[in-house]
Amino acid sequence: MTAHLPAVPTTAEAVVPRQARGGDMAATEDDFAEFVRATLPGLMRYGHALTGNPHDAADLVQTVLEKVGARWSKISRTTDEPLAYVRRAMANAHISRWRRTRRETLLADFPDVPAAAHRDRLEDEPLWTALRSLPPRQRAVIVLRYYEGLSEAEIADTLGISRGTVKSQASKALTTLRRRLGAHAEGGDG
């Protein structure tokens, strides 16, 4: 049995709920469609770095864009940086999902047939493994700083935390990454 993965939205039509669509909303819908077209590749990269795999990233981006699309007219009027708003929503949604699902799931029996897993080519990459092991907020800070190139102030605004928290989370994350990657480097690959 193969799992069907939802398609990643590429237009506002895919993420704006039917009740939000209407003739008077055409300009807002067009603005949102343009926003999605312009930011989708970066949001997918950010989602991949947050979640650790492309499938969960697509789900995260789609879920957040559905919510944002339903409130786009208000968000675009009241928010100076809608991209920062969406990134913050993604980080918050990812942290919430992680908190809900981090508990152990017990099974009565193992499945008879193991699922055919398509391995991500970066799955065993030491940096990705170390990055995935970070707590969600530390991972979000590192991804926004070093992958997306945001400043401490922009990260603080995006995540809704203070600059001091950004600095401390980045410091803790970098210490952890250095320790884990240093141990890997000392173990040698050759």
UniProtKB/TrEMBL annotation:
Protein name: SigE family RNA polymerase sigma factor
Protein family (similarity comment): Belongs to the sigma-70 factor family. ECF subfamily.
CDD domains per record: Sigma70_r4
InterPro entries recorded: RNA_pol_sigma-70-like, RNA_pol_sigma-70_dom, RNA_pol_sigma-E_actinobac, RNA_pol_sigma70_r2, RNA_pol_sigma70_r4_t2, RNA_pol_sigma_r2, RNA_pol_sigma_r3/r4-like, Tscrpt_reg_LuxR_C
Domain HTH luxR-type: 131-185
SUPFAM superfamilies, alphabetized: Sigma2 domain of RNA polymerase sigma factors, Sigma3 and sigma4 domains of RNA polymerase sigma factors
Native source organism of the sequence: Saccharopolyspora rosea
NCBIfam families to which the protein is assigned, alphabetical: SigE-fam_strep (TIGR02983), sigma70-ECF (TIGR02937)
Protein keywords: DNA-binding, Sigma factor, Transcription, Transcription regulation
Transcription is among the record's keywords: yes
Claim: Manganese is one of the keywords in the record: no
